[in-house]
Amino acid sequence: MTEAREPAGPYARRAPGTPCWVSLMAHGLDATEEFYGELFGWEFLPGPQQLGPYVRALLGGREVAGMGHLPPDRRLPVAWTPYFASDDVDRTADTVRLCGGTVAVGPLDAAEAGRMAIASDPSGAVFGIWQGSAHLGTAITGEPGTPVWNELLTFETESVAKFYASVFGYEEEPVVSPDFDYVTLRLGERPVAGLHGVGHALPRDRGPHWRTYFEVADVDETLRRVTGLGGRILRAAHDGPHGRVATVADPEGAEFSVVRDPG
User: Fold this and answer.
1) Whether the Cβ atoms of residue 210 and residue 254 lie closer than 8 Å to each other
2) What is the pLDDT of residues 67-114, one digit of tens each?
3) What would the pLDDT profile of 112-125 be if each residue is shown by its tens digit?
4) How far, in Å, CA of 166 to CA of 152, rounded?
């Protein structure tokens, strides 16, 4: 679980296919800002309003994530959504359709920030496509409170891996194991995202979906803060090959993981 950082730094234009942004759509935007502001130390500034009220979360004055208002009549799950960089969002959207995916929103301009689309893969997992202009994406990485990894939870990885490889040009690195279905997506030598096939263990009320991991300084302390702020622990803290990790949900039910890198 190594976040794909560009050699040129976070302010450089991302190579196509690189995860460059994460965004959350929530019903109660003010309460959601309060939760994540207390949890990660984020501050907020208004962002593009093409899809309704939207704010950008800042850490130390630098952008790390976005949050928008989900109208009550939109029966969509409250969830974190990763965005993948593109040099031409219209062309990428066409490729999504040709490969069996769906484009639900856009492509459309987000003011001067860039151009975007929201799509889903053939299994139904939602992701974003971002062609940056004034706003290139997350401007700080590797610090507590920043996104560090994105992982797709799906039924099986073989077919969906082909979809993402066709759309974004990834190379696939599968785990060779009869009882663990996992594929790491790479751009050259850099791992950029993971696909985890969990079969019937996938929640029936969610279906396939992406999950974002955020770096924290202390996983156990973060869990105490999550519950104190009205969130829930979905999977308790445990030590793994990539550090100490846990999965939680915010007060509206948006799931995410927190991880402390052992390095």
Assistant:
1) no
2) 999 887 777 789 999 999 999 999 999 999 999 999 999 999 988 889
3) 889 999 999 999 99
4) 16
Over its C-alpha atoms, the chain yields an Rg (Å, rounded) of 17
SS3 106: strand
232 phi, psi to nearest 5 deg: -130, 150
CB 228 within 8 A of CB 220: no
> CATH 3.10.180.10 region(s) of the chain?
19-132, 147-260
Nearby residues of 150 by Cβ (< 8 Å), 6 or more positions away = 19, 22, 82, 193, 194, 210, 211, 212, 213
Matching residue, tokens 């899809």: 51
Question: What is the spatial distance between Cα 210 and Cα 13, in angstroms, rounded to a whole number?
Answer: 23
Contact 77, 209 (CB under 8 A): yes
Q: Are 222 and 135 in contact (CB under 8 A)?
A: no
Q: Which of 99-108, 137-146, 181-190, 244-253 has the lowest mean pLDDT?
A: 137-146
Cα–Cα nearest to 211, from 162, 255, 158: 255
Q: Which two tokens stand for residue 166?
A: 């066709």
CATH number of 147-260: 3.10.180.10
CA–CA distance from 5 to each of 138, 172, 213 (Å)? Answer: 11, 18, 15
Cα–Cα distance between 123 and 240 in angstroms, integer? 28
Give, in words, the CATH class of 19-132: alpha beta
Residue 56 dihedral angles phi and psi, to the nearest 5°: -105, 135
